[in-house]
Write a sequence for this structure.
C-alpha cells in the first residue's frame, strides 16, 4: 500500500516540479521589433525600421494620462498580428497602460467577440472587426460609433491621407463602428517562372484566368494552375463571393431582396466549380493557411488572395520560390471595373471602461510614422502616404498595384449588412456541398434562397 | 512447442504493430514541437534525424505566456476534482450501501445525467451565469465541470464500494462506531485505489475540457486548450507552436496517467468483474 | 416485541441512523446536481418555446410554442445531423467494442513486454480531444501529411483526403475517435478476462472445443457485464463528440460530419439563437433519453441477474 502511495506522491511531486521549474524560467522578454512566431519565419531578420524613432510626431499622440489602466485587445491572427506584437510593447512603455492581446483564429474571433457583447462581460476593450461584420456590429451598437471622435480629432488623424475606400472597414449607416486597421485588395499572386515556362500570359479577365489555370495544370498532379478556398464556412464563402463579384452576379436584386436562384448566379457557381478542376483535389477543404502552404510548397502556380499575404510570399524563409513570385491586378469580369476590397477595422467595445485610452491607442497605431513599422511587421496599409512613400515602395514594389486596386476598390461586394454572418454560413455550407458533389448547383442555390428569405429581412 | 513459440511471436509482432498505431501520432506531435518550420512538413517525413530547436517552446513561454494559462487549468482542475471527489465519494457510498430503494435507484439518475450532451447543459447555464455576473470566473467552469464529474464519481465509487466486503465495516459498527465513523475510518482507507481512479478521471475531464472553457472563461481565466486553438491562424499554419503548446496540454495529465494507470483499471472494473 | 401484559411500545419510530447517515451523504451531491443541472434544463425547455435571440438588442422573448421544433424538423440540415449522430454513435460503439475486445485478447499475455505495451497504449486517453483532432488533421493532410504521403507511395489515390471526401469524412472521424478511446475499452475488457477463472478454459480444451468456440460460447457470455459497461461508457461519450469535429472538418464536407451536438453549438453559441438551439438540444436529449431507457432496463436486469444491488 505504501509503495503505491509513494508512487502516487512521486507523480504529483514530479508534476509540481515541472510546473515550478517552468514558472521560474523567466519568459524571454519580447523584443520590441518583430518577435515573429516560429511559424512566421524563425529565420526572418528583424524588420528594418526598428521601433518608431523617439520624438516622432506619432509618439506625441500618446500621453501618460491613462497610466495604470488595462487594455485588452482581441486580435484575429491574420498576418498583421505580427504588427501588433511589434508595436504594443512600445505603446505600453509610452503610455504606462498595461495592454494585452488575445490572439484568436477567424471563427473564434467572431464567436468570442459576439459572446463578449451578448454576455455583457466587457472582456475586450478593443477588437479587430472584419469588414463584413460592420453592419452587425453597427446595428447592434456593439462597438462605439467613432464618428464624433474622428470629427473632433481630424487634424491629428491626417484624415485626408486615409484612402476613402478604407472607411468601409467599419462604416454603417452614417456611423463609423470600427476604425480602418488593415486594408486588403484582392490581388493575383503568381509564379512568374512557371508562367514563363508554359508560355502563359498574366490573366486579365475571368476567361483568361480559367484558361491559364487549366493550361498550367499538369496531368500527373505534380502541379496545379490555381489554389482556391473550398472549406465549408467563411473560407469558401469568401472565394465564391469574390468570384461572383468578378463575374458580375450578386446575392440581391436591384431592390435589395434576396435573389439567389438567378441564371447569372447559376453560371457563376458552375464556373467556380470548373475552376476547381485546375486546383488540387483537396482544395475543397482548404482554409487560408492550407492554400498558403501549398503555394509555398510550389504545388499551385497562382492564387487570388488578399494583398496582406504578399510580403510572406516574397519572404525566402517562408516560401521557397519567393524570388519568382509576382503580383498583378485581380482579373476583372464586372462592368464597373472594380477590384475586390476587404480587410479589418479596429473597434472599441461599447461596454469598455477604457474607451478614451483605447482611442488613444488607435490614433497612435494608425498614425503615419507608426504605420511604417506596422507595414514592416506584416501589417496592411490604410494611408496614401504609406503607399507612396519612396522607401517603402522600394522595399515593397507591389505598392503601386495596391494603390490602384484600392482607388478602384469595392468594399461592398460582400454586403456589410447585419445579416451577413448568417448568410455567409449558408453560402459556405451549400457551395462546399456543391463542390464535393453532395448537391446540384440549382439545388444549392435554391437552398440558399430559402434560407436567405428567412435571414435577409 | 514450436507452434506455441511461433504463435507467441506472431502475437508479439501484432501487438507491436498495434502499439505503433497508437503511439506514432503522439510521437509525431512531440517531435514536431522540436522542429523548425521547414522540417515539419518535409516530404518524405523526417521522424528522427532533424535539427532540434527550442524556438517553439520559447514562443510558447514568451509570446503566448502559456504558464499563466497552465495555472488557470490547474486551478480549475483542482477545484473540480476536489468538489467532485468529496461529493461523489459520499454519494457513491450511500448508493452502494443504502437499503433505501430511493437512494440506490438514484444511481440510475446520475447515470442518465452523464448522457446529457455538454452543449445542452451549456446553453442555459451560460444564460444563468450571465445573469449572476459569473461569466469569466473560475467558479463558473468549476461548477459545470463538477456537475459532470460528480455523477460519474458517484457511479464509479458505488460500483467500487459494492465490491468491497462489508465485514470490516460491520465489525467497527459492533465496536460502537457511528455509520459515518465507520465509513471514514474503515472503508475509505481501503477504497483509495477507487478514489485515485476517480481523481484521474476528474483530472482528465477538466484539464482536457474545451467547450465549457470556450464559453465560460475570460482572457484572464483561459485554459490551455483555448490557447492552442488561438494558434489556428488564418495566414500560416503554425504547427510548430501548436505542437509545443499541445505538449503543455498533454504532458501533465500524461505523466499522472502513466503513474496511476493501475488504479484506474482497478477502480473502473471493480463492480463489473464481481459478477 | 412487547410481551403480553407489558406496556405497549410507543409506536413512534426513530429514523434508522443508518438511513439518516446515508441520506446525509447523498444529499450534497443530489442537491448540487438538481440545482445545477435540472434547473437549467427546465429553463432550457421553457426557452425552447420562445424565439429568444441573445443578439437581439431588445432581448425580447416572443412565445412561439412549438414553432422551433417544427422548424427543426423541416430543416434538412437538422434531419441530416440527427442521422449523422445516430450513425456516428452506432459506428463508434460497435467498432470500438469489437476492436477493444480483440486487443484485450491479443494483449492479454503477462510478459513484461506486453505489460509495457499496454501501459503505453492507454496514453491517448489522457490527451485533450482537441489536440487529438489537430494532430490527426495534420497527419491526414493531403498536401503535407505523412499518411497521405505513404499512401501515395503505395499507389493509392488519395483524392481529397480522408477528411475531405464526403464518403470517407465520417469514417475518418470514427477512426480518430477509435484511436483515442479503444484503449479504454481494452483495459476494461482485459480486466474482465483476467477475472474469469482459468478452469473454464481448461475444461473447454479437454472437451475438444476449438479456441474460437471456447471463446464465443464460454468466455463471451461470462464477459457480458464488462462488455455492457464498455458499451455504456462509450455510448455516453459518443453522443458528446465535439472537439474533434470542431477542429478537423467543422461539420463538413457539406454536412457529412455534422452531428446534432455540433449544430447546436453553431446555432446557440455562435449565432446565439437560444430559443431554436434549446429546441434542438431538447430533441437531442430526447433521442438520448430513448437510448437511456433502453440501457437502464438492460442494466437493471443485468444487475439483478448478477445478484447486485
Amino acid at each position: 500500500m505504501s509503495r503505491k502511495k509513494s508512487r502516487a506522491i512521486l507523480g504529483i511531486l514530479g508534476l509540481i516540479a515541472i510546473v515550478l521549474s517552468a514558472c521560474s524560467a523567466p519568459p524571454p522578454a519580447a523584443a520590441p521589433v518583430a518577435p515573429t512566431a516560429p511559424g512566421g519565419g524563425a529565420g526572418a531578420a528583424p524588420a528594418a525600421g526598428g521601433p518608431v524613432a523617439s520624438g516622432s510626431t506619432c509618439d506625441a499622440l500618446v500621453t501618460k494620462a491613462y497610466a495604470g489602466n488595462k487594455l485588452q485587445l482581441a486580435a484575429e491572427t491574420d498576418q498583421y498580428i505580427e504588427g501588433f506584437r511589434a508595436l504594443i510593447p512600445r505603446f505600453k512603455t509610452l503610455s504606462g497602460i498595461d495592454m494585452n492581446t488575445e490572439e484568436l483564429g477567424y471563427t473564434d474571433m467572431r464567436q468570442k467577440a459576439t459572446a463578449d457583447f451578448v454576455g455583457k462581460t466587457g472582456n475586450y476593450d478593443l477588437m479587430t472587426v472584419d469588414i463584413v461584420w460592420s453592419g452587425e456590429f453597427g446595428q447592434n451598437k456593439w462597438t462605439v460609433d467613432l464618428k464624433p471622435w474622428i470629427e473632433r480629432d481630424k487634424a491629428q488623424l491626417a484624415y485626408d491621407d486615409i484612402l476613402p475606400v478604407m472607411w468601409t472597414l467599419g462604416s454603417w449607416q452614417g456611423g463609423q463602428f470600427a476604425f480602418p486597421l488593415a486594408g486588403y485588395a484582392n490581388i493575383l499572386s503568381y509564379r512568374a517562372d512557371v508562367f514563363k515556362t508554359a508560355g502563359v500570359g498574366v490573366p486579365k479577365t475571368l476567361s483568361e484566368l480559367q484558361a491559364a489555370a487549366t493550361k498550367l495544370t499538369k496531368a500527373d498532379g505534380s502541379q496545379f494552375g490555381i489554389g482556391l478556398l473550398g472549406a465549408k464556412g467563411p473560407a469558401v464563402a469568401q472565394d465564391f463571393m469574390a468570384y461572383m463579384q468578378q463575374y458580375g452576379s450578386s446575392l440581391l436584386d436591384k431592390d435589395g431582396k434576396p435573389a439567389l436562384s438567378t441564371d447569372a448566379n447559376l453560371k457563376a457557381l458552375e464556373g467556380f466549380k470548373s475552376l476547381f478542376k485546375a486546383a488540387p483535389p483537396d482544395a475543397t477543404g482548404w482554409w487560408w493557411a492550407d492554400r498558403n502552404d501549398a503555394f509555398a510548397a510550389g504545388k499551385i502556380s497562382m492564387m487570388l488572395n488578399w494583398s496582406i499575404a504578399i510580403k510572406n510570399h516574397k519572404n525566402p524563409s517562408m516560401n521557397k520560390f519567393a524570388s519568382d513570385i509576382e503580383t498583378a491586378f485581380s482579373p476583372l469580369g464586372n462592368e464597373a471595373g472594380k477590384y475586390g476590397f476587404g480587410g479589418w477595422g479596429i473597434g472599441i467595445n461599447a461596454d469598455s471602461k477604457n474607451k478614451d485610452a483605447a482611442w488613444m491607442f488607435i490614433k497612435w497605431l494608425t498614425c503615419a510614422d507608426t504605420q511604417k513599422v506596422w507595414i514592416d511587421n506584416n501589417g496592411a496599409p490604410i494611408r496614401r502616404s504609406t503607399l507612396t512613400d519612396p522607401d517603402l515602395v522600394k522595399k515593397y514594389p507591389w505598392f503601386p498595384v495596391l494603390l490602384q486596386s484600392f482607388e478602384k476598390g469595392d468594399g461592398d461586394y460582400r454586403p456589410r449588412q447585419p445579416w451577413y454572418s448568417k448568410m455567409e454560413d449558408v453560402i459556405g455550407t451549400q457551395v462546399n456541398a456543391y463542390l464535393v458533389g453532395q448537391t446540384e448547383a440549382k439545388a444549392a442555390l435554391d437552398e440558399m434562397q430559402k434560407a436567405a428569405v428567412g435571414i435577409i429581412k | 512447442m514450436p507452434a506455441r513459440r511461433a504463435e507467441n511471436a506472431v502475437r508479439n509482432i501484432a501487438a507491436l504493430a498495434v502499439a505503433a498505431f497508437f503511439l506514432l501520432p503522439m510521437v509525431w506531435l512531440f517531435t514536431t514541437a522540436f522542429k523548425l518550420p521547414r522540417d515539419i512538413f518535409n516530404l518524405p517525413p523526417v521522424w528522427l534525424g532533424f535539427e532540434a530547436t527550442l524556438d517553439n517552446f520559447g514562443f510558447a513561454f514568451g509570446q503566448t505566456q502559456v504558464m499563466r494559462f497552465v495555472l488557470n487549468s490547474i486551478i480549475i482542475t483542482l477545484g473540480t476534482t476536489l468538489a467532485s471527489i468529496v461529493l461523489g465519494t459520499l454519494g457513491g457510498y450511500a448508493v452502494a450501501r443504502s437499503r433505501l430503494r430511493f437512494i440506490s435507484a438514484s444511481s440510475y439518475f446520475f447515470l442518465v445525467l452523464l448522457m446529457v450532451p455538454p452543449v445542452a447543459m451549456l446553453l442555459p447555464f451560460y444564460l444563468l451565469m450571465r445573469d449572476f455576473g459569473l461569466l469569466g470566473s473560475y467558479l463558473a467552469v468549476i461548477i459545470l465541470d463538477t456537475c459532470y464529474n460528480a455523477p460519474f464519481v458517484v457511479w464509479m465509487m458505488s460500483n467500487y464500494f459494492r465490491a468491497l466486503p462489508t465485514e470490516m465495516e460491520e465489525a467497527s459498527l459492533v465496536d460502537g462506531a457511528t455509520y459515518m465513523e465507520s465509513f471514514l475510518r474503515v472503508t475509505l482507507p481501503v477504497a483509495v485505489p477507487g478514489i485515485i481512479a476517480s481523481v484521474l478521471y476528474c483530472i482528465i475531464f477538466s484539464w482536457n475540457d474545451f467547450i465549457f472553457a470556450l464559453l465560460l472563461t475570460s482572457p484572464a481565466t483561459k485554459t490551455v486548450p483555448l490557447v492552442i486553438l488561438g494558434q489556428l491562424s488564418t495566414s500560416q499554419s503554425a504547427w510548430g507552436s501548436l505542437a509545443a503548446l499541445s505538449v503543455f496540454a498533454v504532458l501533465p495529465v500524461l505523466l499522472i496517467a502513466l503513474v496511476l494507470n493501475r488504479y484506474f483499471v482497478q477502480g473502473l472494473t471493480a463492480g463489473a468483474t464481481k459478477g | 416485541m412487547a410481551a403480553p401484559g407489558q406496556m405497549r411500545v410507543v409506536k413512534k419510530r426513530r429514523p434508522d441512523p443508518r438511513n439518516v447517515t446515508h441520506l446525509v451523504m447523498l444529499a450534497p451531491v443530489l442537491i448540487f446536481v438538481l440545482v445545477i443541472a435540472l434547473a437549467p434544463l427546465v429553463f432550457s425547455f421553457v426557452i425552447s418555446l420562445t424565439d429568444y435571440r441573445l443578439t437581439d438588442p431588445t432581448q425580447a422573448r416572443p412565445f412561439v410554442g412549438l414553432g422551433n421544433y417544427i422548424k427543426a424538423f423541416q430543416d434538412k440540415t437538422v434531419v441530416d445531423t440527427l442521422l449523422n449522430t445516430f450513425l456516428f454513435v452506432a459506428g463508434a460503439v460497435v467498432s470500438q467494442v469489437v476492436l477493444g475486445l480483440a486487443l484485450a485478447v491479443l494483449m492479454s499475455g503477462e510478459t513484461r513486454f506486453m505489460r509495457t505495451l499496454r501501459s503505453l497504449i492507454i496514453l491517448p486517453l489522457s490527451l485533450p480531444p482537441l489536440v487529438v483532432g489537430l494532430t490527426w488533421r495534420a497527419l491526414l493532410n493531403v498536401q503535407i501529411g505523412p499518411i497521405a504521403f505513404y499512401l501515395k507511395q503505395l499507389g493509392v489515390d488519395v483524392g481529397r483526403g480522408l477528411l475531405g471526401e464526403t464518403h470517407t469524412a465520417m469514417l475518418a472521424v470514427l477512426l480518430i475517435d477509435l484511436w483515442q478511446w479503444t484503449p479504454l475499452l481494452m483495459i476494461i475488457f482485459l480486466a474482465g478476462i483476467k477475472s474469469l477463472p482459468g478452469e473454464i478454459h481448461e475444461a473447454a480444451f479437454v472437451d475438444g472445443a476449438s479456441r474460437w468456440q471456447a471463446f464465443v460460447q464460454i468466455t463471451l457470455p461470462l464477459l457480458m457485464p464488462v462488455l455492457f459497461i464498455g458499451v455504456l461508457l462509450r455510448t455516453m461519450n459518443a453522443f458528446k463528440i465535439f472537439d474533434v469535429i470542431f477542429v478537423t472538418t467543422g461539420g463538413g464536407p457539406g454536412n457529412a460530419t455534422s452531428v446534432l451536438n455540433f449544430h447546436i453549438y453553431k446555432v446557440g453559441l455562435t449565432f446565439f439563437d437560444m430559443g431554436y438551439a434549446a429546441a434542438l438540444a431538447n430533441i437531442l436529449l430526447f433521442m438520448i433519453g430513448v437510448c437511456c431507457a433502453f440501457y437502464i432496463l438492460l442494466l437493471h436486469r443485468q444487475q439483478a441477474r448478477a445478484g447486485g444491488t
Notes: Chain B has 13 helices and no strands. The radius of gyration of chain B is 23 Å. Chain B touches chain C through 99 residues (CB under 8 Å).
